[in-house]
Amino acid sequence: MTTLIKERAKSLNTFSKTNLAEEILRLKKEKNAIILAHYYQEPAIQEIADFVGDSLGLSQQAASTDADIIVFAGVHFMAETAKIINPKKRVLLPDLNASCSLAESCPPDLFREFIDKHPGHTVITYVNCSAEIKAMSDIVCTSSNAEKVVASVPLGTPIIFAPDKNLGAYIMHKTGREMLLWDGVCIVHEAFAIDKILKLHQKYPQAQFIAHPESNPEILKIASYIGSTTGMINHVKTDSGKEFIVATEAGILYKMQQEVPEKVLIPAPAKEDNTCACSECAFMKMNTMEKLYLCLKNETPEIHVSDEIREKAIIPIERMLNLS
Ligand code: SF4
Where [4Fe-4S] cluster is bound, by residue (predicted)? Predict the structure, then answer.
């Protein structure tokens, strides 16, 4: 065992007698820190977060906070976006390996080549990408505002949309705009199994099937509502339906059930055999309460973005925030 692991184990061991959540809250206050958590985080993290939301809501919170430290309980591109918006603040991520299949599908050198091959295009990138990719973009979007962002591009201007081909195809369908799509997918939303969903629907014939637009087209075709995580939560709150089959990362069910305790929420099944019959993002679940505590205590791992990349990446992010 390395010294560092031993120290961490000792630290957690001592600490296990006390309440992890209370200690995180104490440290947060002492350090004037804020915890921003994505809906896909485990319930214990959502409970102690100052704000729980989707990528757009989290970016907006990051832009308005006066905390000295932002602890981002989410994945790397989200923490990086918070750092780009707040260069003077320290931004921490409990596990630096918490990546995203969409961000990884779009390496900067290949994306540069793609843009150069298609001159004259407006480059719209889904927020699930690295700072380098954002720095090559004209405007960023989230699943909440992608339609609005695409509609803001003057008619007749060709568009590149990256990295999510499923979201891109859905927005093309919604707006009627042709776009050149990068070939990236979310491994979680790609994994939903249409045959299992249809079978589940036979068991719950009254249930509405609702889906995130990162899901593939055959899944979206059978959905009665398609929207961002926040959109899905609002839908189950305002719709008169009593049962919903929900196709997005299963972490959302915690917040959703709090909002509609009287309704039945069923996670959509994935293709692989899985014990919980639902989809979980392994990247999102790399964050744990223990790592969150250690991150706040030791003020590491920290996110860094070079000035050169930041100065370019902030422009398309601000364009998106202004449009939202
Ligand atoms: S759920 Fe998909 S899009 Fe979201 S972080 Fe995980 S891999 Fe990326």
Answer: 100, 186, 281
